[in-house]
Structure prediction request, 228 residues.
Amino acid sequence: QVQLQESGPGLVKPSGTLSLTCAVSGGSINTNNWWSWVRQPPGKGLEWIGEIYHSGSANYNPSLKSRVTISVDKSKNQFSLKLSSVTAADTAVYYCARRPDTDVKQVFDYWGQGTLVAVSS
Amino acid sequence: DIQMTQSPSILSASVGDRVTITCRASESISRWLAWYQQKPGTAPKLLIYKASSLESGVPSRFSGSGSGTEFTLTISSLQPDDFASYYCQQYNRYSWTFGQGTKVEIK
Prediction:
């Protein structure tokens, strides 16, 4: 059973860079899956941030693309998110998730528990 | 981006009720639609993919239908464990987008 676990600072200063890591266990990151980040502001809905394949190929939400970098570390079986120039609007629970690269089920089937990141001075 | 609109935003129902949630896409997404359930403080859980395919382990009282721009999630007989928020998500075209959510609360 695949498990994902987010880690990183829970507080980031405005204009700073948010950095999170998602550790994958119970399976290799070097498989036919896209590894994604999704966020949820308190009391609001879900927003897809972006995703990466084990090859390093990445796709980003156009609304965040200029500020987002997602990378993969196959040796550590983990992938990471960096979001720059953060403001209070970036305060959210950040989830990592797996999205299989299949013909039919290209949806988020495994999720981490989520980590709350607050942007505040 | 493809916009996803759910209705209603809040649904009050009783145990045993048949419940239907609607999701509309701003353009045709064929059947590339998923439904998730989310309880407070937890990650979303996949219920249905490709509009009507039930994820393994999900109770059969959940069903999905639709194609093109209009989709529905139905819970045939609402159980106490089903009071939660529900989100639709399209995966027809980047970037992946979610509906704003429907909260199913106790009447």
